[in-house]
């Protein structure tokens, strides 16, 4: 099942009613195959972990893989620098898997013993043995490492492509499957031989899919005229490890009497359990004054099954967050229009699922009621352009299936001229962001804009189509 990408665009003539969801006549080209903490002490806040660095860099990205393991990274030209901050005094490992399993993975192992740091570029064979063995070519370069009373910290770098395809996995623009491991014990002093890591199989944690080459986040300056509103779920019971829950919560805005611009949004994690259970959150704008919306706004929320249970009035997407991403900030010249006279109700759809629970973290995940959501930033100081969201993609149906035993299945669709002519104003739009999502079933997705003449040559447009 493939979820439509969301294309953000601006236009000087757009209004709220021009935000369109096309599922029947609009598609993107999609390729599918079978197939995002605290490190100072348990009592300290998550945000304090970056203070562990002896020589802090201006990191492009920071991600907590779980409550005990944080990674920071920065890309300069063809080099990528990582820092690991792990709550352990034993060894740690970090690397990449070709498919989410540890067999065939590329991984670096490091530890600190009696003040001396050991660090090795390793790989895991495909024979089922989880023991990482040392590479003949050491392409991960240690910059420094140390440990304090509670944590091990390692900083190292490598080339995006090490030119060692036999043992290393190249870091590309694709989604990378990050493997990480840690153990409370160090290997034998200076050990470099296979079979000497204490309990390697039980030290691995569930992999995390992350795009490492994404652009650095825009530094957001919170001006005094910017207001913040937290849209939170209310005591949602988290599903079991292998269960899925889609929860719909409706909010009513009464005090926004004039037009505002939404300029930023970010996820709110209610607890460490939320990090593992939240898959995606979609905020929808509802038009009209329907009695159903009024009743839903008074509720705690309700379980829903996605688009089928969402009122037709709530078909305009305002914001979308997916696991592995952080905040989204609109460009300085644009914002999403919000006004209670135009749209008084907003529906937040939250997808809960934890397909790969980290059993070692269950002690920290005792909270079973979740109050996560989205934090939105908006202002009455209007920007030059209104933003909109065009949701396009392959609507799951009987035509969109993956037969068993196939190494690759391609689903292809086209957003035809009739759709864009209806959705876009005469002077066109300016696309400034594209967010793609394929749930867990997709491995590759492409969005292509094809000029009219090229499309006509390939038979994608009727012969009378305008350029």
UniProtKB/TrEMBL annotation:
InterPro entries: Cu2_ascorb_mOase-like_C, Cu2_ascorb_mOase_N, Cu2_ascorb_mOase_N_sf, Cu2_monoox_C, DBH-like, DOH_DOMON, DOMON_domain, PHM/PNGase_F_dom_sf. GO terms for molecular function: copper ion binding; dopamine beta-monooxygenase activity. Keywords: Disulfide bond, Glycoprotein, Membrane, Transmembrane, Transmembrane helix. It holds the Pfam family Cu2_monoox_C. PROSITE patterns: DOMON (PS50836). SUPFAM superfamilies: CBD9-like (SSF49344), PHM/PNGase F (SSF49742). One of its GO terms (biological process) is dopamine catabolic process. It comes from the Eukaryota. Residues 67-183 form the DOMON domain. Belongs to the copper type II ascorbate-dependent monooxygenase family. This is DOMON domain-containing protein. It comes from Glossina palpalis gambiensis.
